[in-house]
Each structure stands twice: as structure tokens, then as C-alpha cells.
Amino acid sequence: NTVAFSVTGFAANIADFVTLSGDMGFQKSGTDLIAVGNNVSASLDAGVVASVSVTGANFGLIYTGEETAFELSDGSFAANVANLASVSAQRVFVQYTSANTTISSGRKLSIGQAEYTFDNDIAANTIAFSVEGFQAEVAGFVSLSGDLGFKKVGEDIIAVGDDVSARLGVDGVASLTLTEADFGLLVGGDQMAFELQNGQLDAQIAGMSLLPFDSVAVQYTNANTTITEGQTIGVGNIEYAFSQDIDADTAAFAIYGFNVSLANSVVLKGDFGFGKTGDEFYAVGNKVTAAIDV
């Protein structure tokens, strides 16, 4: 006893948020309009230069005239961002609710034998393209991992996170790993920049023992991008403010007030930037002092 309206090749742009496409079934349920789909895609596009997308996702939508909500889940994530390679994610979901709409975990939409269940509560006025277990390699510099939220702002794509990791290392030689860090990324046109700050630092460098330090920042810009201190981006209720001015063409794993004890009892202190070239791990510094610990 099902009355449904099926659409093949559906496509729509949602409030300058995402572009939806796929095959869907629509049905009136009481006074509500619902839709479900099981091979639906959503993408955030910054022109032809960058995009993030989910494909093959399950989809559910409810519209009451005054309330609108939809969600995509259980799809495959892809990203086309300059200088990011080997991009993957464990889970991706896209959520949208209007200002007066909330969704309760477990709410189910059904059209015939097709169903969609919202797994989590969704607050009113939510616009989220969220990725869990994100991983990427950055142009011979660092590897990134963590949970991120993406958003389109004008012709740019931004991303923020507050539990992100970055690792700079040469296997069998040395490594620096920043975990639980705040993260901000900006990409669009010919611009690309990101930064991580705060977090916990682990240094694995033979013959060195890390002592308390002042701060750490992982910074990257391409040749066309500069960042101004305090420049702020945000997705949902998470904001990121860049910690300092960043010049164009920067790739730096910087530790300020770096403080290490060497195996020969020499203590080094200063501001250091770390990098790698092929199988070589190196550092340069300024305001550096050396003292013998006796």
C-alpha cells in the first residue's frame, strides 16, 4: 500500500552548502514530505581547484513546510585539494537542519521497503560536512589525521578541527608528532594554507630528551598564499584563529623555546624549525643557546 514518487538523476544545490545528486524516492507522510535514497552524493566545490565529496551514501530528508532536515551517511569520502595526497576517511556524514528543526536519534523514515534512520541527535540550524578519521599526506612535509568539519565560504573551502595530529618524520631516523591540536585550513582559487597549534608534542630523536618548551606550530602555505595573524575561520561552533603571520611558500614544524638535553649533557635552547628532504631530517634555529648541564 505504498504511493511513492521516484526520481532518477536528482540534482540540487542546497543554500550554497552542498550539491546533492542521486536517485531518490519521495512520499507524503501525513502532512510531511519525506525522501530516502541509497546511492546519493554530496559535494562542496571551490570552482575547479578544490572539492570534498561523499558518494554512494544513504540519504534521508523530511520537509514539513516550516521545518527541513536531511542527512547523508555511510558513503565514501574523496577530496581534491592541491598538495594533499593519499586522502581517506573512516566515516563521513552531511547534516542540514533549518533554524526551527531538531532531529532525535533513531528517527526513521520509510518509503515502501526503503528506510533511513538518523543515528544521532541533530540540533537546530546545523550545517555540517563532517569527516571522522581523516588522513592525508602533505607534499613531502607532514602527514595529517583527525576529525574535521568542512564548509564552503564564498568560493573557498575551509576546514577546522580540535583533535588533529601532524607527524613529520623519516622512518628509522627521527620524528616529531603533534597530537590533540587545533587545526585550520583554507583553500580556494590559487590559495592553500593550514596551521596546527597547541596540542601535545612527542619527539623521537636519537640522543635527545625533550624538556619543557614554550609553544609549537605546524604551518603550510603555497607560493600564492599569505596569512595574517588572527585571521579566523569557523565551522559550526568550532573556530580557528591563525596564531601569527605566515609568509607565502612556508612549510614549517616550528617549536618555540625548544629545550632538549643531549646525550653528552649539553642542553640546547631556542626556536627551531624542522623539516625533511628525502631521507634526511634536519633543523635550523635562531636565538639558540648551548650549555653543559653539570
Keywords:
23 strands, about 290 residues, mainly beta, single chain, elongated, two-stranded antiparallel ribbon, about 0% helix
Characterization of the model:
There is one protein chain. With 294 residues, the chain is mainly beta. 0% of the residues lie in helices and 69% in strands. A hairpin with a 3-residue loop joins strand 11 and strand 12. It is elongated.
Binned, the helix content reads under 10%
Low-confidence stretches: none
Radius of gyration: 23 Å
Largest sheet: 19 strands, antiparallel
The strand count comes to 23
**Structural class of the secondary elements?**
mainly beta
Tell me, rounded to a whole number, the average pLDDT.
89
Spatial separation of the terminal alpha carbons: 87 Å
The count of helical stretches stands at: 0
Shape: elongated
Encode the helix/strand succession as letters.
EEEEEEEEEEEEEEEEEEEEEEE
Beta-strand percentage range? over 45%
In short:
With 294 residues, the protein is an all-beta fold.
Write the layout of secondary structure elements.
Blueprint (H helix, E strand, L loop, with lengths): L4 E10 L3 E12 L2 E15 L3 E14 L4 E6 L2 E5 L3 E5 L2 E7 L10 E4 L2 E4 L9 E12 L3 E12 L2 E15 L3 E15 L2 E7 L2 E6 L2 E3 L4 E7 L10 E4 L2 E4 L9 E12 L3 E12 L2 E13 L2
Antiparallel strand pairs: 1-2, 2-3, 3-4, 4-5, 4-6, 5-8, 7-11, 8-11, 9-10, 11-12, 12-13, 13-14, 14-15, 14-16, 15-18, 17-21, 18-21, 19-20, 21-22, 22-23
